[in-house]
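ok so i was messing around last nite and threw this chain in just to see what happens. nothing serious, just curious
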Amino acid sequence: MSDYRGSERVGTQGLAIDQGLRAYMIRVYNYMALGLVVTGLAAFATMTSGIAPMLFAGPMKWVVLLAPLAMVMFLSFRIQTLSVPAAQLAFWVYAALVGVSLTPIAYIYTGASIAKVFFITAATFGSLSLYGYTTKRDLTAFGAFLFMGLIGLIIASLVNIFLASSAVSFALSIIGVLVFTGLTAYDTQRIKSMYFQSSDSVSLGRMAVMGALTLYLDFLNMFMSLLRLFGDRR
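result:
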C-alpha cells in the first residue's frame, strides 16, 4: 500500500511539473508573439505617419538604429533587478524601437514579399522550436558551435559594411539562416531547462521575459536573412 501511494505522489508531482512547464512555455511564446505584433505596429505607424524620412535623415538615423541595441543591453544587464512588470515594459519598448528601426524595409521590399517571407519564417521557426522543445538530445555542444558561428557572422557583417560586397552579403544571409534556425532549437531547449532552475514566481517571470527576448531575436534575424535572400525589391 505504501509503495502504491508513493508512486501516486511521484506521478502527481510529475504531472504538476509538466503543467507548470507548459504554462511557462506558453507564457514565453505569448510574450514573443506580442513583441512581434508591437514591432509590426510600430513599423506600420512610422511608415504611414510620414515621419520616416525625418527619422532616417542625418545624425538622427544613428539614434534610431542604435536605440534598440541600447535597450536590449539594458534589459540583459538589469533583468535581475527589475520587477516582472518593468521587465515586460522594457521588452515592449525594445520591440517598438526595433519596429521603428526596421521601417526602411517597407520601402526596399514589396509588401507581398515581406508577408511571404514572414510566413516562411513563422513555419520554419515553429518547426525548429518544436524540435528543441521535444527532443531528448542534448543540444549544448551544438549551441556552442552555433554561438561561434554567430560571432563570426557579426564580425563579417561589420566588415562588409565597408566592403559593400553583394556576394558577401548573399553568403552571410545563407549563413544567417542556418545559424538562427539552429539557435531556435537550441534556445528553446535552454529556455525549457531554465524552468527547472527557477526558485520562485518572480524569477520565473523574469526568465519568461528573457526567453521571449531570445526567441524574438532568433525569429527576427531569421526573417531578415530570409528577406535578403527571397524578398522582391521595389
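not much to say yet. Confidence is low (pLDDT under 50) at residues 1-11.
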